[in-house]
Amino acid sequence: MYKKIFLTTLSIILGLIFALQYQVVKSESGEIITTKKASELAYELRQVENERENLLKELEEIENELKQYEESASIENDYIKNLNDELNKYKLMAGIIDVEGEGIVLTIDNPSAEAQFDDYTNNIIYNYEYLLLIVSNLNAAGAEAISINGQRYTNYTEIVPVGSHLNINGVSFVPPFEIKAIGNKQTLQSVINFKGGVVWEMQKLNYKIDIELTDDLKIERYMKPIDFKYAEPINENE
Questions:
Q1: What is the DSSP secondary structure assignment for residue 122, as one 8-state letter?
Q2: Which of 178, 179, 184 has the alpha carbon at shortest distance from 103?
Q3: In the prediction, which pLDDT does 28 show?
Q4: Residues in the chain with pLDDT < 50?
Q5: Measured distance CA(167)–CA(131) in Å, rounded
Q6: Which of 44, 89, 131, 140 has its CB surrounded by the most CB atoms within 10 Å?
Q7: Strand order through the sheet with 171-173
Q8: HEC profile of 129-144
Q9: What is the reported pTM?
């Protein structure tokens, strides 16, 4: 009887011990698995952080290269812009580009038939030096572009009387003559209109002259081809 009770009690105690060991082993196994997983995740995290740092370094290098490129491009663009500005300035001086701006327009015609009293020597064709004087005065007043009857006046412009016509840049014209000049319109007007000047003298000779100031004047480029037969650029490297 006591033996059965003892065995029963012993069995219960052993069962409890086994159960407790199972729980401990289960708990310890869980802790081992959790630690291993955490270690793996920590390693992956370090890898990701390292990769992130490398990507940030690459990004920084790319941004620096981009910044240097932008600075270089900006310098190059400024250089090209300066070259274009310089080129356009020389084109403007040579008269080979269309231009616009404020200025004045002079329309010059012969005296009326009655005013000439049958004396046709007052025809502007025979006194074309008046036109040259007007152009000279406009240049002296700072005119940046001049045209006569649509022909751009440049260093290569020829004004030659041919019979009853006036050849300008090889094109024949008869009066009236329209002279356009781009520049400070007030300055150009004051130089043209001063007492004792060429316009004042022409008006005394009954030439019909109209002067108009404008803010929107267009002058076309010099159209005649320019050929250099004798002048050549100097090569400074030679």
A1: G
A2: 184
A3: 44
A4: 1-7, 10, 14, 16-18, 20-33
A5: 13
A6: 131
A7: 159-162, 165-168, 171-173
A8: HHHHHHHHHHHHCCCC
A9: 0.65
Phi, then psi, of 5 in degrees rounded to 5? -65, -40
Tell me how far the alpha carbon of residue 175 is from its chain's centroid.
Answer: 41
Question: Edge to edge, what strands does the sheet with 99-109 contain?
Answer: 151-152, 145-148, 177-182, 99-109, 208-219
Residue with tokens 């290098």: 61
Angle at CA of residue 83, ends 80 and 88, nearest 5°: 125
Alpha carbon distance 101, 98 (integer Å): 11
Those residues with Cβ within 8 angstroms of residue 148's Cβ, 6 or more apart along the chain or in another chain: 131, 135, 159, 168, 173, 177, 178, 179
Kindly state the tokens that stand for 16. 């409890």
The H-assigned helical ranges of the chain are 2-94, 113-116, 129-140, 185-193, 198-204
Question: Which residues, in sequence order, are CB contacts of 122 under 8 Å at separation 6+?
Answer: 110, 111, 116, 205, 206, 207
CA distance 109 to 126: 13
What pLDDT, in 10s, does the model give residues 115-143? 655 555 678 998 999 999 999 999 999 99
Dihedral pair phi/psi, residue 226, rounded to 5°: -110, 120
